[in-house]
Amino acid sequence: MAAYRLMRNDPYKRIRYDKLRQQFPELQERDFRLRLKEFAQLQKKGTNDGWWKLKPSSITDESSLLQLVTPEQVCLHESMLVGQQRLEDAGYAQNEIINELDDGESTLDIEIQLAPWITTKNFVLATQGKGMLKLHGPGDPTGREEGFSFIRASMKEMFFRANENVEELLALMEQRPKSYHKFSIAEQQIVYKSEIDRIWTNQLNALTSTEEPTLSEDENDEYEERNKNADETRKKNEIKEEDERRKGFGADRSHPSSPSMYYSAGSPQINSEHNAYSDMEDDSISNAGSAVSNVNKNRILYIRRTVKCAN
User: Fold this and answer.
1) SS (H, E, C) 121-180
2) Cα dist. 142→55, 87, 121, 137, 215 in Å?
3) Contact at 8 Å (CB) between 17 and 28?
4) Cα→Cα distances 247→17, 185, 254, 285, Å
């Protein structure tokens, strides 16, 4: 869709890879080639050598272009990007952010199990009868059994209701004669559907209630702990971004040759344990200017502003 519009707006109805690379920096030239071949041709002669031009039969009207990408697809894509960014902000490396489900999914961190591409696939498999969901537990976004947990549940194990004493029930099953199965699929499906109905009812009652909800003591403690962890993560990310900005100007505070190079008298000192500022104030940031190396001292920063006139 982006290529169509760029080519349609071009006077000669053509495009180069560079234009698309500005909007999709993560893609390689072969990725662009595969997509462009569907509706465009690479010119290899004349003045258009190296340009892609629209095929005569290609669609160019706006209504047809809008059908190429639906609002639902945009929402799915942006939800995936948000989930990926949250995992990266939480400190997960790219190779830890998995894309496919496997039998060992239950051993993964809860943050990865709740990635939108995983929960979406779990939900689709469950609606097709090819999988089950835990329904309650850590994956419940409400934290009070008024929402569904889309974390994958094993179909080979017994499904239990929320707040059931699992150990006690398992002990009773072990006492059954060996001729009895530990559980039947029919029993499991009855319990599973009853839990779905219960959560729907809880959700309906919560949404239609006229009383303002209140947090229990445990919920309040959990809320404060989550906010505290979020603040710590945010501070770490700010320190990391500051490091990257300083490196761009030739100043690396992670290996300072002399602390006085980065600080003036009275400025905050480096925390040796965490290798970070104990406190960062605006004047200490301004002192970083003295750390610019000779190699970069002639660099010029251009700031362009567009001013809207009163007229």
Assistant:
1) HHHHHHHCCCCEEEECCCCCCCCCCCCCEEEEECCCCCCCCCCCCHHHHHHHHHCCCCCC
2) 51, 20, 21, 10, 11
3) no
4) 31, 60, 10, 14
Closest by alpha carbon to 243, among 271, 195, 197, 275? Answer: 275
CA 278, CA 286: separation in Å to the nearest integer? Answer: 16
What are the tokens at 224?
Answer: 């404060």
Give pLDDT tens digits for 155-210: 877 788 887 776 777 676 666 665 555 567 788 888 889 999 999 999 999 999 99
Q: How many CA atoms lie within 13 A of 79 on its CB side?
A: 13
Question: Which range is least confidently modeled, 27-41, 133-147, 244-258?
Answer: 244-258
pLDDT of 269 > 80? The answer is: no
- CA distances to 3, 52, 80 from 76, rounded to whole Å, are 21, 29, 6
Between CA 218 and CA 220 the distance in angstroms is 5
| 97-139 pLDDT tens trace | 754 444 456 677 888 888 898 899 999 999 998 889 999 888 8
Q: Residue 185 falls within a domain, yes or no?
A: yes
Residues 233, 227: Cα–Cα separation, whole Å: 10
Buried residues in 179-205 as b, exposed as e (16+ CB within 10 A): eeeebeeeebeeebeebeeebeeeeee
Q: Domain boundary at 54, 69, 84, which?
A: 69
Residues in the chain: 311
Domain limits at 125?
A: 73-205
CB atoms near residue 35 (< 10 Å): 15
276 vs 46, higher pLDDT = 46
Amino acid at 172: L
Do residues 180 and 134 share a domain?
yes
Number of domains, the chain: 2
Residues 83 and 184 in one domain: yes
- Tokens standing for 72? 């639902």
